[in-house]
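If I may wish for something, please sit down with the protein I am sending here and say whether tokens and residues agree:
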Amino acid sequence: MAFKTEYEFILPKGYVDEEGNLHKRGVMRLATAADEILPMRDPRVQSNPGYLSIILLSRVISRLGELSAIDTRTVERFFTSDLAYLQDFYRQINEGDGVQVKTACPKCDHEFEVEMAFLPELSGA
């Protein structure tokens, strides 16, 4: 059984680097507890809580086009529609109801993905 920790994305507009190259395809990894806790110590977050998402995204975006590294300056230069898309994408992969896990039937070895929910369904009772 394989647990998926990286998710590909395509930015709606794309990031334009200093040389004018457009980067749209990227990979975001699942966030760790440290990714969410450590930025809270950053003075930029303490003075402006909205900056938290900039730091979070710079930590969890592992690839964007041909860029060798993604830092806060890179994320600051995203178009607002791309920033909103990535914030939503972050929430989807990190706070979703479940995750897709690859598995195989023990009888026929047919491989398939199944969604595993970690939060119980809430009933009206």
Q: What stands out?
A: Residues 80-95 form the longest helix (16 residues). The radius of gyration is 18 Å. The chain is about 30% helix and 30% strand.
